[in-house]
């Protein structure tokens, strides 16, 4: 809206340009995709509005100062983040553009895992409608009011001068969401204000009581449905009026709850494969699937770093134990379910397998093994079972082919 007002209020062009730049820059400061979903289209709106406010022969010089003001606002919001990245990693847009800038905290192997996970699996033009309907119609988080009422606003194309701009921005948003992202919901969130404006504009299609009564009926019915639907388990756990502490305990996974309650106060857990640590109340060390595996980094024999991952040996038992103690690790949790999921999607280091943990048990580095989260082996698909069976020492994870040890806890040997 600020972009539409830049040329409409005399004497406020520069100030509005700066404010518009600050707001647009905030989007990229939150998520890099804000560059294509907000900053570029906002700049285009300012330029198009300038052209409409001048005759065809007008020069572009009057646009330079507002453009500079807009750029200043954008830079003020994103520069601190880019400079921090540059100082810490050598890459201002870390972890993007690794092939251009490199990065001290990234590697070709990590980049190879990250890129496929953050790109769409296909770009078949024949499936565009399917993907858009998936977001607009079949998505359980989407209100029918947004998309259903936004479509009729096309009838106002010639009557309301802002409608063409809004609809073009919606088309741009969906096009970039489909072509340049991995098509998850959060990347089309910037479209919600635009869809809301388009949906609201449908009120202007007709002044008749029949039309307005129809809209009011639709809005009331859908709103009541949404309020009721959002309270159902179909859309996930809904806290509602529950006590927040009780609600928080309800959502904690059984294995994490056990650790919260049972671990000694001086415990520190190394999480292998596990990155959903939001509910943990104990000290821990973990890495995401896109980072270097801490277990691998801490236990690999340095001279083997150039060998294939599966052939790398571990440090001698005493050195492994010393390394774990250096990092104050008292327990190791391995989430084999997460490792399985990653290997079927993003990829996960082949260094981690059940045989290594059995070796650490045999060498006395680890004292005990406890299964925290068993799952039915039959619930795994054939592909999942085949993947598990391809791991060294996998038989110990499903010894009777009844239960699969999805999460295990090991205790590090005491001094």
Descriptive tags:
single chain, 415 residues, alpha/beta, 3 domains, 5-stranded mixed β-sheet, globular
Strand content: 5-15%
Report the strand count: 5
Output the strand order for the largest sheet.
2-1-3-5-4
Largest sheet: 5 strands, mixed
Structure description:
The protein is α/β, with parallel strands linked by helices and 415 residues long. The chain has three domains: 1-106, no CATH class; 119-238, no CATH class; 251-412, no CATH class. The chain contains 18 helices and five strands. A five-stranded mixed beta sheet has the order 2-1-3-5-4, with helices on both faces. The longest helix has 29 residues, at 61-89. The termini are far apart. The model has no long low-confidence stretch (mean pLDDT 89).
Describe what is shown at a glance.
The chain has 18 helices and five strands. A five-stranded mixed beta sheet has the order 2-1-3-5-4, sandwiched between helices.
Blueprint (SSEs and pairs):
Layout: H1 2-5, H2 13-30, H3 34-53, H4 61-89, H5 98-101, H6 108-117, H7 128-136, H8 144-150, H9 162-180, H10 191-201, H11 209-229, H12 244-251, H13 254-262, E1 269-272, E2 284-285, H14 294-299, H15 317-326, E3 331-335, H16 336-344, H17 354-362, E4 366-376, H18 382-389, E5 403-412
Parallel strand pairs: 1-2, 1-3
Antiparallel strand pairs: 3-5, 4-5
Helix pairs in contact: 2-3, 2-4, 3-4, 3-9, 8-10, 9-10
């Amino acid at each position: 809206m600020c972009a539409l007002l830049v040329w409409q209020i005399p004497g406020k062009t520069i100030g509005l340009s700066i404010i518009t730049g600050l707001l647009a820059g905030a989007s990229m400061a939150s998520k890099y995709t804000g560059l294509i979903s907000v900053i570029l289209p906002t700049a285009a709106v300012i330029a198009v509005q300038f052209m409409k406010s001048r005759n065809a022969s007008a020069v572009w010089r009057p646009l330079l100062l507002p453009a500079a003001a807009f750029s200043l606002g954008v830079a003020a919001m994103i520069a601190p983040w880019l400079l921090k990245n540059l100082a810490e990693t050598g890459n201002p847009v870390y972890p993007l553009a690794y092939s251009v800038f490199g990065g001290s905290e990234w590697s070709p192997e990590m980049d190879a895992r990250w890129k496929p996970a953050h790109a769409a699996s296909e770009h078949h033009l024949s499936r565009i409608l399917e993907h858009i309907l998936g977001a607009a119609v079949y998505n359980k988080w989407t209100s029918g009011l947004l998309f259903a009422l936004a479509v009729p606003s096309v009838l106002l194309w010639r009557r309301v001068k802002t409608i063409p701009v809004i609809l073009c921005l919606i088309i741009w948003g969906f096009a970039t969401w489909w072509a340049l992202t991995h098509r998850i919901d959060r990347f089309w969130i910037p479209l919600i204000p635009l869809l809301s404006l388009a949906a609201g504009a449908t009120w202007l299609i007709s002044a008749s009581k029949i039309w307005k009564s129809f809209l009011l009926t639709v809005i009331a019915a859908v709103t009541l449905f949404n309020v009721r639907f959002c309270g159902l388990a179909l859309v996930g756990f809904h806290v509602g009026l529950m006590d927040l502490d009780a609600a928080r305990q309800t959502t904690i996974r059984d294995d994490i709850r056990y650790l919260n309650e049972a671990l000694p106060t001086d415990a520190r857990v190394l999480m292998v494969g596990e990155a959903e640590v939001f509910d943990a109340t104990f000290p821990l060390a973990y890495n995401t699937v896109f980072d270097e595996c801490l277990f691998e980094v801490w236990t690999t024999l340095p001279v083997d770093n150039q060998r294939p991952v599966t052939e790398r040996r571990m440090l001698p038992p005493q050195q492994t134990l010393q390394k774990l103690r250096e990092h104050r690790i008292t327990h190791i949790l391995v989430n084999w379910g997460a490792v399985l999921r990653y290997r079927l999607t993003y990829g996960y280091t082949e260094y981690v397998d059940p045989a290594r943990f059995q070796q650490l048990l045999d060498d006395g580095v680890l004292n005990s093994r406890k299964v925290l989260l068993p799952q039915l082996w039959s619930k795994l698909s054939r592909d999942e079972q085949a993947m598990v069976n391809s791991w060294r020492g996998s038989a110990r994870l499903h010894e009777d082919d009844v239960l699969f040890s999805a999460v295990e806890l090991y205790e590090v040997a005491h001094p």
